[in-house]
Amino acid sequence: MTQAAATDGLSDLMPLTRTVQAGGMTVEVAPIAPRQLAPVVKALAPLQAAIGNGLDITAVPRDKLLDLVGDHADNAIALVASATRLPYDFVADQINLAELLDLVVAVIEVNADFFARRMVPALLALMARMPRTQAGPMPSSDL
Q1: 59 lies in a domain?
Q2: What pLDDT is attached to residue 120?
Q3: C-alpha torsion angle, residues 77, 81, 82, 83 (rounded to 10)
Q4: What is the pLDDT of residues 31-77, one digit of tens each?
Q5: Residue 18 domain-assigned?
Q6: Which domain holds residue 91?
C-alpha cells in the first residue's frame, strides 16, 4: 500500500508534497522527518501563537500572513530551512518575502495532518501510559 493510499483520502484534499518556486529554483515541500521535528516545532511555535487559530492558515488573509511572516522573519526562515533542508543562508538571502510566505504556507499545509492527526493523539496516548503521581508535598530526607 502506498503512503497516498493510506491517508484515507486526505491526499485528494491535501497533497503529500508540494512544490514552490523560490530563489530561482523549485523547492519540494514534503512531510517532515523525525530529525526535523524539534527545529520545526521550535520555529513554528511563535508563528502558531501569532496566527491565533491553531494552524488553520487558510482562514488568515494573505496580507495578514505577510505581516506575520515579516514580524517573525527569523522564525519563518528557520521553519522553512528546517522543513525543506535548504541552507538557512539561502532562505534568508536568496528568496523574497512573497516566496518565503509561500514556503511557510506550504510547510504548514503539508504537515498539518501530521500535527493534528498524528502528533496530538500520539502525545495523548503517551501521557495516558505514564504513571500517575500523587498530588501533595514531596517527601524530604533528613540529612
Answers
A1: yes
A2: 56
A3: 100
A4: 999 899 889 888 888 887 777 656 667 778 888 888 888 899 999 99
A5: yes
A6: 11-129
- DSSP letters along 9-76, please? THHHHS-S-EEEEETTEEEEE-PPPGGGHHHHHHHHHHHHHHH-BTB-GGGS-HHHHHHHHHHTHHHH
> How far is it, in rounded angstroms, from Cα 57 to Cα 102?
11
CB atoms within 10 A of CB 23: 17
Q: What is the distance between the alpha carbons of residues 87 and 81, in angstroms, rounded to a whole number?
A: 6
State the chain's mean pLDDT as an integer.
Answer: 79
Closest CA to 35 of 74, 87, 85: 85
| Domain total in the chain | 1
Convert the pLDDT of each residue in 65-123 to its tens digit. Answer: 888 888 999 999 999 999 999 999 999 999 999 999 999 999 988 888 776 666 656 65
Q: Is residue 42 part of a domain?
A: yes
Q: Quickly list DSSP for 99-116.
A: HHHHHHHHHHHHHHHIII
Looking at residue 45, its amino acid is A
Q: Is residue 4 in a domain?
A: no
